[in-house]
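Figure caption, in words: inputs first, then the predicted bound structure.
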Amino acid sequence: MPEHFPWMADELEALGEQGLLRKRRTVRRRAGGWCEADGRILVDFASNDYLGLSHDPRLIEAAQRAAVECGTGSGSSALVVGRSIWHERLEHRLAHFEGQEAAVLFPTGYAANVGAITALVGDDDAIFSDSLNHASLIDGCRLSGASVSIYNHHALVSLEARLAAARGARRRLIVTDGVFSMDGVQAPLRELCALARRNGAQVLVDEAHATGVFGRHGRGTAELLEVEESVAIRVGTLSKAIGSVGGFVCGSRTLIDWLWNRARPQIFSTAAPPSACAAACTALDIIESEPGLRANLFVLSQQLRDGIQELGLETIAGGSGPIVPVIMNDAQVAVRVAEGLEQQGFLVGVMRHPSVPRESARLRITVSAAHGPQMIEELLSVLKNVAAAEQAV
Ligand SMILES: *Cc1c(COP(=O)(O)O)cnc(C)c1O
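Bound structure (pyridoxal-5'-phosphate present):
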């Protein structure tokens, strides 16, 4: 083929030299905390399938039945003819699960964030966005046209000053991850809600890593931190602990009616397949009826955190739950440690720029309720040797 983009080859080579080139893998099978990737069986400490539900036979059966009943694709966006009986059921189910008046589905969690933010604020408005927020929140902020002020959640005094300074804006919105995806720490939601209340702002929380995991009923960090009444907009994904695919927003009936009419990714993108919605409905039943899954996940996660500290490796203080980062600083070292782990049969995430700042490349180890204590012990023992060999300790 003719080379239309000679600059790309150069840039890709430069990324490779910095340890920033991403490689793809092909997964043949996933089940029970394992996967077969590129022909090798690996213990999967990289996915966000926190409760191991994505391969649960009950979800698979629900998806199969819905596919037979409604077909494999939704055929159009929800507003045309894409909203099947399973979409409707799931929206009701989610509203009930979350204890909110209503919910609306989006094709993905990414689309839910972009759709919600761009429908809520525009040119005359101001957004306050945590510096660690997920890319989908960042992109929503950028697309909205509102002025964006990026704050550090360790500096809430400065956030309050910024909120006060933006008093001239028509609307003010604080957006934050509930659990930061690269750090595994929670946002200071109580403080943020109090600041919002004092300054006439609203709070949007992205519960992508918290739905089904945090809080007494698994509703996320808003439940855990007892601010469910104060958080105006709750965004979630069905692709992580729920084990399916799709995104959602829940809140007041008025908010949901507004998003039906104004959230562009929901209006102009085909709805997720009915089978994904049916699987998600079953997942919510399981999350409600089996709180032991969540409890087990936290026990395993703590075992891993304690073990990493005992090895003298650096993690992030204040974290809890299944996202366990191991800071390596240098991207090349992080890549080599991850490769070493993979050679010994353990798959972990490697997070580098631009997912995290250049100087804080890390392993991102994610625990699943499908793992067992023995798997965690084995991972720790291999990590100890590999990190020592790379002098990462
Ligand atoms: C994964 C993730 C999303 C996007 O959800 P998808 O359903 O995968 O599109 C949004 N926000 C955060 C914090 C995430 O980690």
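Residues 108-110, 113, 134, 136, 177, 181, 206, 208-209, 237, 239, 247 surround pyridoxal-5'-phosphate (CB under 6 Å).
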